[in-house]
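User: My collaborator sent over this chain with a note saying "see what the structure looks like." That's all I know about it. Can you take a look?
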Amino acid sequence: MSKRRLGRGLDALIPGAKQSIVQSIPIDRIDPNPRQPRRDFDVESLTGLAQSIKEHGIVQPLVVRRNGDRYELVAGERRLRAAEMAGLTEVSAIVGDFDDRRAMEMTLIENIQREDLNPIEEAIALKRLRDEFGLTQEELSSRLGKSRPAIANSLRLLSLEDEIQESVSRGTISAGHARALLGVTDSALRLQLHQEIVTKGLSVRQTEELVKRVQDGPHDPSVSRETPPPPPKDPNIAQVEDSLRRILGTKVVIKDRKGRGRIQIEYYSLDDLDRILEILQR
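Assistant: Without extra context I'll predict from the sequence alone. Here is the result:
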């Protein structure tokens, strides 16, 4: 697997950041970032980060800019929220002189590089970088260390219906499921297939086969060749699956048999596998 080229520190966003002066700033003087693309902050993940901050402090300083006698957050909202949860009154931060455009660009790129976004949030951030800054897919690929096909596939998710996008955001289905549904052009049929995927818990491969059958001829869900849905899962196992889906940003299935079993984690490219491994290593 190839090494990821970006997202390894502030130098990826701010040239010379390692040589910048880190200041200690009161948390109550830092205002939230109005350009923050993240819509969901997982409480369980924040709690773990807060515990780490209690034990080791904030390893990676925040990035802020002055706003009168206060500061506006540019990068590091998860760290700021976790620091508040940990009971800190001050945080270490680099104070930069950024205009609105540069601050927005840094916010979006930092979130994408650090993979803090779910697939839909990432697609929205990419769209903003493209539309508001006029960046081409090739320029996005160069800045983010992602392939052009990965950029294109991410942006295509925004052409799906809101209901399907919401399922991807929640982790009910993965980006792989959503990309398979893009092969269906009829909106009503796509929503029908989405419901079938959720109800039956189909894998990405099963979804691809389902879409292929639809493309080959009319689809009647009452005559589906898929196996019947499995029996209801233990609620505790389902809760763990849901937590892992949110943390890893992909479909996770736990096969439990009387306290023993296996965990299946899906990935859809070597880049995606690299991303998951980095999260597990953290």
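A starting point for your reply to your collaborator: DSSP finds twelve helices and seven strands in the chain.
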